[in-house]
Amino acid sequence: MSANLSHLSGKKGIRAGIFRDLVARSRQHALGREDFRAISQTSLFGTAQLHGTASFYDYLRPDEANVKVRVCSGTCCELAGTQPELKAAIARHVPAEQIGEVKCLGRCYENRAFQFADHNHSGQTDVAAVLAGHGAPSQAIHAAASTAHQFLTGQPLGLDAFLQRLDMIYATPAAELLAEVQQSGLRGRGGAGFPLARKLAACQEATGETKFVVCNGDEGDPGAYSDRYLLEVQPYLVLLGMAIAARIVGADAAILYIRAEYPEALRTLDAAIAALEARGLKHDLEFIAVSGAGSYVCGEETALLSSLEGQRPEVRVRPPFPVMQGLFLQPTVVSNVETLACLPAIVAHGAREFAHCGSAQSTGTKLVCLDGTFHRPGVYEVPMGTPLPEILHHLGGGSRIPVKAFQIGGPLGGIIPLAKISELHLDFESLQSHGFLLGHASIVGIPASLPMLDLVAHLFAFTASESCGKCYPCRIGSQRGLELVTAAQAGTPIDPTLFHDLLETLEIGSLCALGGGLPLPIRNILAHFPAELASSFRGGQP
């Protein structure tokens, strides 16, 4: 991250920003030297810097310019075994050089997912009809609540109700709103579980020429699609949550960064913001939706800020934290979609009611995503602290296929064997105390037929592919891990001392949770499935 480039990008702002310009041009043609020269003249970014930025993203790289169809290679689709047949069906209509991959399209509830012409498809979609331009849309997300407190899955908030509640928010002192958030005990729903009130208070106290609220809609964890549900079904709830945060910290710009893999979500938010602007906002607050360009690491808050600035989205060294020095080096609150969407309920119903629904340390409700291995996949809103068996068996109806474990919290989440399920509750403390992780609360079934060594290889491959490259432990360590496991698959046992040293280096040396979080699920596999992995390690000891 360059402070000078941040200052230069700040002069352009977000609406006419460098990154948005790159994305817009890429939708018209493959990015080339003339594009970089034109942007350079108006931004003072060097053409080499712009090329470095564009070459980072799946959707902007020149070598991806001819790709017309992107087939999901996320964990759920891969484990479901639907993708080989899907690729073959697509290949009957599209040349091989026009078929690419994408890590996750948020269609984990029915798999067989692909993207074509800026639309996502999955399930039993007629591939030939879609590629011919007249395919039917895939089924919508099933959403339900196991509690009377439907803070996130209730009747969608409409435009008129949004405007009325926005007036009430701006008529309420910022200190009073912050106090409600503090009393609610709301913790971040994106994985880390950091208390939101502390982040808001720090940004409120920070000094700067301007302040920003950024909604992190770059939900990229395979198995997680709760943010996609909120963005597509509850757009005004998300916008209202952003407005509450902006009112508290004194921000006059609220920016949504939505991953390119969710084109329907981006169109929904663009339409919602356009409707707001058509009615006229009485308050000094601007909403802007920005499309990502295909990068998992942009879900990390500092990489996301670099992306918005048009810089190569590498993770920044902290401190300073974004609340002190974020977008364009100004105080910025970055929070994920679900966290911000909780704020309207806290303000409307009171902190006490929100906190009452949940456990002492993990308050409120949580959206849980069940993948296609369940009889009843979908998004479920449950109170924090709900017993895990209730979610898996009562809500999800159990697994359709034999499974031997569940992964909770995305590719960096814990691998939980069936024997541990009865001991766990869905909250930060229960999972962490047993060596697992809540994360986004996506739940993916691990088929009993899948060799665990293959899953370890998949996790290393995902990290190696998505690493931003800023720090050596993640960039090199993930690749070396993949090489060791690939060799083991071919019959060369792994040196256990070397392997554990590698995991330790990743955990303590990585700048962010991508490399730092990878050891958790791998250690879970080593600890709970030692017999299955014994032959892959020297001495038979994983």
Task: Describe the structure using short key phrases.
globular; about 550 residues; 24 helices; alpha/beta
For the termini, the CA-CA separation is 39 Å
Number of strands: 16
Strand content: 5-15%
Strand order of the largest sheet: 5-11-10-16-13-14
- Largest sheet at a glance? 6 strands, mixed
How large, in whole angstroms, is the Cα Rg?
A: 23 Å
What is the share of helical residues? 40-55%
Mean model confidence by pLDDT: 94
Shape: globular
Given helix and strand content, the structural type is alpha/beta
Q: Helical segment tally?
A: 24
- Please mark out the parts with pLDDT under 50 across 5 or more consecutive residues, or reply none: none
Would you kindly provide a written description of the structure presented here, covering whatever features stand out?
The structure is a single chain. The two termini are 39 Å apart. A 6-stranded mixed sheet has the order 5-11-10-16-13-14. The chain has 24 helices and 16 strands. It is globular and about 65 Å long.
